[in-house]
Amino acid sequence: MVRINWTIQAKDDLNNIAEYISKDSKRYAKLQVIKLRNRTQILKTQLHSGKIVPEINIENIRELIEGRYRIIYKVVDKNQVDILTIHHTARDLKKRKIK
Questions:
Q1: Can you list the alpha helix ranges (DSSP code H) found in the chain?
Q2: 8-22 and 26-39 helices cross at what angle (nearest 10)?
Q3: pTM for this structure?
Q4: pLDDT digits (tens, 9 = 90+) for 23-61
Q5: Are 39 and 66 in contact (CB under 8 A)?
Q6: CA dist., res. 81 & res. 77, Å (int)
Q7: What is the CATH code for 3-94?
Q8: With contact defined as beta carbons under 8 Å apart, do 73 and 43 qualify?
Protein backbone atom coordinates (compact mmCIF):
# COMPACT_ATOMS: atom_id res chain seq x y z
CA MET A 1 0.00 0.00 0.00
CA VAL A 2 1.13 3.52 -0.75
CA ARG A 3 2.35 5.72 2.08
CA ILE A 4 0.91 9.26 2.07
CA ASN A 5 3.42 11.71 3.51
CA TRP A 6 2.17 15.18 4.46
CA THR A 7 4.98 17.71 4.10
CA ILE A 8 5.44 20.51 6.62
CA GLN A 9 4.09 22.96 4.02
CA ALA A 10 0.93 20.89 3.47
CA LYS A 11 0.34 20.58 7.23
CA ASP A 12 0.80 24.35 7.60
CA ASP A 13 -1.66 24.90 4.75
CA LEU A 14 -4.26 22.71 6.48
CA ASN A 15 -3.78 24.59 9.74
CA ASN A 16 -4.09 27.95 7.99
CA ILE A 17 -7.25 26.85 6.18
CA ALA A 18 -8.78 25.64 9.44
CA GLU A 19 -7.81 28.82 11.26
CA TYR A 20 -9.28 31.04 8.54
CA ILE A 21 -12.58 29.14 8.25
CA SER A 22 -12.94 28.83 12.03
CA LYS A 23 -13.34 32.61 12.27
CA ASP A 24 -16.84 32.00 10.92
CA SER A 25 -17.46 28.38 11.92
CA LYS A 26 -15.33 25.99 13.93
CA ARG A 27 -17.55 23.13 12.83
CA TYR A 28 -17.16 23.89 9.12
CA ALA A 29 -13.40 24.36 9.54
CA LYS A 30 -13.12 20.89 11.03
CA LEU A 31 -15.30 19.39 8.27
CA GLN A 32 -13.21 21.05 5.54
CA VAL A 33 -9.97 19.62 6.94
CA ILE A 34 -11.57 16.16 7.15
CA LYS A 35 -12.73 16.43 3.52
CA LEU A 36 -9.26 17.45 2.35
CA ARG A 37 -7.57 14.62 4.25
CA ASN A 38 -10.13 12.07 3.07
CA ARG A 39 -9.74 13.14 -0.55
CA THR A 40 -6.11 12.03 -0.50
CA GLN A 41 -7.01 8.47 0.47
CA ILE A 42 -7.67 7.59 -3.18
CA LEU A 43 -3.91 7.87 -3.72
CA LYS A 44 -3.34 4.70 -1.69
CA THR A 45 -4.70 2.68 -4.60
CA GLN A 46 -4.58 5.10 -7.56
CA LEU A 47 -1.33 7.07 -7.56
CA HIS A 48 -2.00 8.85 -10.82
CA SER A 49 -5.68 9.63 -10.27
CA GLY A 50 -4.98 13.36 -10.21
CA LYS A 51 -4.15 15.41 -13.27
CA ILE A 52 -0.77 16.96 -14.00
CA VAL A 53 -0.54 20.49 -12.57
CA PRO A 54 -0.64 22.73 -15.69
CA GLU A 55 1.49 25.51 -14.16
CA ILE A 56 4.29 23.04 -13.39
CA ASN A 57 3.86 20.46 -16.16
CA ILE A 58 5.93 17.71 -14.53
CA GLU A 59 4.60 14.16 -14.85
CA ASN A 60 4.95 13.19 -11.19
CA ILE A 61 3.52 16.42 -9.71
CA ARG A 62 -0.26 16.13 -9.79
CA GLU A 63 -3.36 17.55 -8.19
CA LEU A 64 -6.67 16.45 -6.78
CA ILE A 65 -9.51 18.92 -6.43
CA GLU A 66 -11.65 19.12 -3.30
CA GLY A 67 -14.15 21.95 -3.34
CA ARG A 68 -12.20 25.15 -3.89
CA TYR A 69 -8.86 23.61 -3.02
CA ARG A 70 -6.12 22.02 -5.08
CA ILE A 71 -4.30 19.22 -3.29
CA ILE A 72 -0.93 19.16 -5.00
CA TYR A 73 1.13 16.03 -4.56
CA LYS A 74 4.25 14.37 -5.86
CA VAL A 75 4.49 10.69 -6.77
CA VAL A 76 7.85 9.82 -5.21
CA ASP A 77 7.72 6.17 -6.21
CA LYS A 78 5.19 3.33 -6.33
CA ASN A 79 5.16 3.21 -2.51
CA GLN A 80 5.07 6.89 -1.53
CA VAL A 81 3.20 10.09 -2.31
CA ASP A 82 4.13 13.46 -0.79
CA ILE A 83 1.34 15.98 -0.30
CA LEU A 84 3.19 19.19 -1.19
CA THR A 85 0.58 21.89 -0.61
CA ILE A 86 -3.11 22.69 -0.37
CA HIS A 87 -3.87 25.70 -2.54
CA HIS A 88 -7.09 27.71 -2.88
CA THR A 89 -8.23 27.87 -6.51
CA ALA A 90 -8.77 31.64 -6.36
CA ARG A 91 -5.08 32.25 -5.72
CA ASP A 92 -2.31 32.34 -8.31
CA LEU A 93 -0.25 29.16 -8.03
CA LYS A 94 2.61 30.69 -10.02
CA LYS A 95 3.44 32.90 -7.03
CA ARG A 96 4.13 29.84 -4.86
CA LYS A 97 7.30 27.83 -4.85
CA ILE A 98 6.49 24.13 -5.07
CA LYS A 99 9.22 21.52 -4.78
A1: 8-22, 26-39
A2: 150
A3: 0.91
A4: 999 999 999 999 999 999 999 999 999 999 999 899 999
A5: yes
A6: 7
A7: 3.30.2310.20
A8: yes
